[in-house]
Amino acid sequence: MQQNISNGIKMKILLTGGGTGGSVTPLLAVFDELRVTRDALCDFEYLWVGTKSGPEKEMVAREGIEFKAIAAGKFRRYFSARNLIDPFFVIIGFFQSLVIILKFKPDWIITAGGFVSVPVFWVGWLTRKKMIVHQQDVRAGLANKLMAPLAKFVTVTFEKSLQDYGPEAKWIGNPVRGKKLEVKSKKYFNLAINMPVLLILGGGTGSAFINKLVLESLPQLTKICQIIHVTGKGKQPALKKNYPNYYPYEFLNTEQMAEAYAAATIVVSRCGLATLSELSYFGKPAILIYLPGHQEYNARVFEEYGAAIVLDQPALEKNFFIKKVKKLLADKKLQADLSKNISEVIKKGAAKELAKIILKN
Q: Which residue intervals define the domain Glycosyl transferase family 28 C-terminal in the entry (predicted)?
């Protein structure tokens, strides 16, 4: 394959996923890896298919990737009035995908999850395209369960997930944009050097629960640490007064996130795999507050490996939260242990492994 590529054959890759940033980041890490390969061996042409309203359009636009939106319905395994409407969006998405794929003629179709990808994969299977499904979370979601039987390759983040996909699946870890998150300068946050830093992340779209918890905890926490709080767009809490040492942001771009990770003494975070993979990559001591559902399975793996402190959202209130933050900030040995364990809980080099699969097959 490399011989053909070096002779100037262009490979077309259709990336699909969205609705949240969690299904986007791993594919952008693979894009980064293939871009290095392109410089040495070949050229690639990319197209991203995602939702109309998710954050993916903005995320991929920054990388210069062409984007097309399709209608996206969701397959719910519980009662909802939307179940009567969404099948029509899935059908529309199928025919939109058919037009896109027949025109673009991709060599590969790749997803890391998201219901918007399902009609794309159905069309990909009908048109005999090579396809890859990457399973990020420990527990397989319905969208990936629907797509995996149609794919040429299935890759997983955790060894435990192999039982959902059989012996043909490949355990590779989760792709991380590590090079993009390396600090190039320290100019965005005006932080004191003699006070610890607490970085708080609510996931790609923010967490109303964590935002409220932080707001209630500010009077005490701002006395002992500086707080960088990524609230999510449109979710920045209204403060009755400005707190010293508190820096809320609705959104941080890649360069700003790199500086935030570098500055952080400890991190409080949701349990989406994109963020957990970054915490593992940088070895950051973390307190995890999972969103009830599939995130709990992710959190329990980290807890099992002694890689993070896990707090259960249903029973969590401000005094217990403050106590846990204070304890971790004061315990340097616990920080060191968590840092070591979290850096080992996810396999490294996943983006390279996925790039190898694409180039060799």
A: 197-352
Residues 6+ apart with CB under 8 A from 162: 156, 169, 171
- The per-residue pLDDT for range 334-349, each reduced to its tens digit, is 999 999 999 999 999 9
Contacts of 291 (CB under 8 A, 6+ apart): 203, 207, 270, 271, 313
Q: What is the pTM of this model?
A: 0.88
Instruction: Say whether 116 sits in a helix, a strand or coil.
Output: coil
Q: Which residues share a beta bridge with 44?
A: 11
Q: Is the separation of the CB atoms in 72 and 19 below 8 Å?
A: yes
Per DSSP, the three-state class of 10 is strand
Output the average pLDDT for the chain: 90
Domain with CATH 3.40.50.2000 in the chain: 2-174+347-360, 180-344
Question: Residue 180: its pLDDT value, please?
Answer: 85
Q: Is 313 annotated as a binding residue?
A: no
Which of 13, 19, 70 is CA-nearest to residue 42? Answer: 13
- Is residue 128 marked as binding? no
Q: Domain 180-344, what fold? A: Rossmann fold (3.40.50)
Q: Does 139 carry a binding-site annotation?
A: no
Question: What's the gap between Cα 323 and its chain centre?
Answer: 28
Q: Is 272 annotated in some ligand binding site?
A: no
Helix/strand/coil percent split, the chain, to 5: 45, 15, 35
Closest CA to 109 of 97, 95, 94: 97
Q: Is 236 annotated as a binding residue?
A: no
Q: Please give the Cα distance from 263 to 276 (Å, whole number).
A: 17
Residues 2-174+347-360, CATH architecture: 3-Layer(aba) Sandwich (3.40)
Express each pLDDT in 252-305 by its tens digit.
Answer: 888 899 999 999 999 999 999 999 999 999 999 999 999 888 899 999 999 999
Tokens of 48: 């991203």
